[in-house]
Amino acid sequence: KTMKLAYWDIRGLAQPIRLLLEYTGTCYEEKFYTCGEGKVPFLKSVGLMRKTTTFKQFSLQLPYLEDGDRKITQSNAIMRYIARKHNLCGETEDEKVRVDIIENQAMDFRNGFVMLCYMDFDGKKDGYIENLPNTLGLFSKFLGDRTWFAGRKITFVDFIMYELLDQHRMFRPCCLNNFKNLKDFLDRFEGLDKIKAYMKSNRFIKTPVNNKMAKWGNKKE
Question: Which residue intervals define the domain GST N-terminal in the entry (predicted)?
């Protein structure tokens, strides 16, 4: 059966989900929504005006995943749902702990970057860039000489971290120069057969990263 992934027509929160669906060979189709004008995203289509989870207040929440009668919101919940089907949540207790840590640390990292891109970009850009080596250094130290963030086997958090690091590489091309293990991680991820094929396909979204009201990553190139 075919899953359905719905999100804005950007990379955003859905990109790691797309990468994970591709890697696991999951049959899925995408439903794209276009952000309207203004400071707050709204839908040009009213097709999303319906309940997508058991919580009515989340009826407009993107992304969402439909798998038969099951409807899931929250990007990390979607990632875990797909990952559980393919044993990509860590195997040992140590691996599972590392997955949990990176899952949450990555969301903190992402939220800070999103705030920069959508809010006071000009006022906070210099400070963000100045602190970026410290942030990346923590992820580099956590990864160490491991193949993947949890250990020897890939888990769903690697897909989240790939997207975050790639976005920052686009934002600040030199930011990974002093972190060889993070650069190697990106190369290793892009070298995965199914990921490589997806990135070469016309389904892959390179840009835009963010919606049109963002100050960075809002252009389609």
Answer: 1-90
pLDDT tens digits, 179-212: 999 999 999 999 999 999 999 999 999 999 999 9
Is the CB of residue 63 less than 8 Å from the CB of residue 71?
Answer: no
Supply the CATH classification number for the domain 93-192.
1.20.1050.10
Distances (CA, A) of 70 to 21, 52, 102: 16, 9, 27
CB 65 within 8 A of CB 14: no
Closest CA to 215 of 115, 144, 128, 137: 115
Measured distance CA(165)–CA(181) in Å, rounded: 12
**Does 93-192 match 3-87 at the fold level?**
no
- C-alpha 167/C-alpha 114 separation (Å) is 11
Q: Given the structure tokens 């190369």, which residue do they identify?
A: 187
Please name every residue paired with 6 in a beta bridge, in sequence order, or none if there are none. Answer: 31, 64
Residues 209, 12 contacting (CB under 8 angstroms) = yes
- Residue 54 has φ and ψ, to the nearest 5°, of -75, -10
Q: What is the architecture of the domain spanning 3-87?
A: 3-Layer(aba) Sandwich (3.40)
